[in-house]
Design brief:
alpha+beta; six-stranded mixed β-sheet; three-stranded antiparallel β-sheet; 8 helices; globular
């Protein structure tokens, strides 16, 4: 009889200790998560690439995932994102029932205050540039290379000064928590050299592309206040000629619908790519978005 009672008490004790251990484990997990979130590297605006897409553009999800996979996994030396692009996301512009384009009218829509690259239909595109939001793409390529030259990182032939790059890394990324040990710092300097070379190479390749295919850049004139502004503010995606070798056509990625003779048809005509003016917030990461332009054109045309 005593043995049975003892056995029952022992069973209860084990159950009670197990519950305490389970509760303690949960508490420890919560604390670890809180500590990790508090000290983990948070992407800055420049390290978080945002592709903003007009709600009326039809997007093939598998295709856009493939573009991002190429950018993140293809390697910076192949035109992809560098080590400083920590996150990528697609943001869809949404209007409301009263005003489907309310997100752009007045320039107050939050997403467009932190944009990187936008895919817009013509009406939104025209509103966007009329509010002085988009960069002139040809000038953007020039400024990317000029940034490297002005900082003495390379010469006009694209030959890089490794010592200067190392000093630049120490100045700009020296306090980053990712680079503490000698090995991490060494790797960081190597990655920084690759990143800066990619800016030069991507800009150069895009310049050559637009010189040979000027029809890709859409030129517009608009009034901003009392000033008239003319520039090449977008890439006209309908001018990409497709890449038959890989079977990639821009219509498989972006298109819009329209009605003709009571039939719903689809086209890429009237879809534009713009680059947002976020240089102040992004610093030198402003030029990371060149990787997206380069990869998109290389994937969906034979122009690069």
């Amino acid at each position: 009889m005593v043995n049975k009672i003892t056995g029952k008490r022992l069973k209860n004790l084990i159950s009670y200790d197990w519950l305490k251990m389970l509760a303690l484990s949960v508490i420890v997990c919560i604390v670890v998560i809180l500590i990790f979130n508090a000290f983990a590297k948070k992407p800055s605006d420049g390290q978080d690439f945002r592709l903003v897409i007009d709600q009326d553009v039809i997007v093939e999800e598998d295709e856009i995932k493939g573009v991002f996979d190429t950018l993140f996994d293809g390697g910076v030396e192949e035109g992809g994102f560098s080590y400083e692009t920590l996150q990528g996301q697609v943001v869809y512009l949404r209007g409301n029932d009263e005003s489907p384009k309310s997100y752009i009218l007045g320039g107050v829509y939050a997403e467009l205050n932190q944009d990187d690259v936008n895919i817009l239909l013509e009406d939104v595109y025209l509103e966007y540039i009329a509010q002085n939001n988009a960069v002139k793409i040809d000038e953007y390529l020039i400024s990317a290379k000029q940034f490297l030259l002005d900082n003495g990182l390379c010469n006009s032939l694209g030959e890089f000064d490794v010592n200067r790059v190392n000093s630049y890394f120490e100045t700009t990324r020296g306090k980053d928590t990712r680079f503490k040990t000698a090995e991490q710092i060494k790797k960081g300097k190597e990655d920084e050299l690759k990143r800066l070379k990619a800016i030069w190479n991507n800009a150069t390749a895009l310049q050559k592309c637009f010189e040979e295919h000027p029809e890709l850049l859409d030129e517009r004139t608009y009034l901003f206040g009392a000033y008239e502004n003319t520039g090449k503010f977008a890439i006209n995606l309908s001018k990409l000629n497709g890449n038959s070798e890989s079977g990639k056509y821009i219509e498989n990625l972006f298109k819009r619908s329209y009605v003709k003779d009571d039939q719903t048809l689809y086209t890429v005509e009237g879809i534009y790519l713009t680059v947002g003016q976020t240089s102040d917030a992004d610093g030198d990461l402003f030029y990371e978005k060149l990787a997206f332009l380069y990869t998109l054109i290389k994937t969906y045309s034979t122009f690069i």
